[in-house]
């Protein structure tokens, strides 16, 4: 299955990423050579880098390592293709504009019969062939009316995500990360574990307060600039020996500015 990582911080934070290491931490088969994507979100816009190539072989990653980028939300996806060919259009995280902001989505799992959720008349349509992008388009179609009068409340946005997530869980493993640049929302379901069973946890979470410990995460492929900070980190599997919290199946975790808002 694919691998996910996300960070929400109180202030914009520079992050270096070694995606080959990050992928190996989570993969039991090391078959994660079907593409990668990184998004650095800071406010309304985001820098998004995607490539349908193995993360460990990409010449772009050394470039990004030399020029660490910052953001309040960072989203990472390393792909193992399950639906759709190896192509840029099928490479996550996916992005769309809504309400004058870039929205981002990354998914780990698969959905059967997801096409039923897509309205061919809707504004948001998939560019590629993946079930994950269809789910994102369906989410934004439901979210769009809330944004007609400006930024919706946290409760309203979380409610839309929770409603669709409950339906997606019936179609298959539905671990996903979604952000509008203000909120980072993580939905946890189940995933293929080392013993081959598809069971929870599908997402784990770690909170950090200042000062940031600069010694542990680089070994897992993530290097966060030290300094006074509040961080919330999400990943498919624990990346360090710290107390990563397994999120319950079906839970929705909402984070804003590096602080936990709610878990439902």
What does this protein look like?
This protein has 264 residues and is an alpha+beta fold. The chain has one domain (3-263): Aminohydrolase, N-terminal nucleophile (Ntn) domain (Glutamine Phosphoribosylpyrophosphate, subunit 1, domain 1). It is built from four helices and 16 strands.
What is the name of the CATH superfamily? Aminohydrolase, N-terminal nucleophile (Ntn) domain
Structural class by secondary-structure content: alpha+beta
Distance between the termini: 25 Å
Relative helix content: 10-25%
Biggest β-sheet strands, sense, barrel? 8 strands, antiparallel
Tally of helical segments: 4
Can you tag this structure with a few keywords?
single chain; 264 residues; alpha+beta; Glutamine Phosphoribosylpyrophosphate, subunit 1, domain 1; 8-stranded antiparallel sheet; 6-stranded antiparallel sheet; 16 strands; 16% helix; 36% strand; globular
Structure summarized in a few sentences:
This protein is α+β, with helices and mostly antiparallel strands and 264 residues long. It has helices spanning 19-26, 60-66, 131-143, 154-168, and strands spanning 3-17, 36-42, 45-51, 69-78, 94-98, 101-109, 174-179, 183-187, 191-192, 198-199, 204-209, 222-224, 230-235, 245-246, 252-256, 259-263.
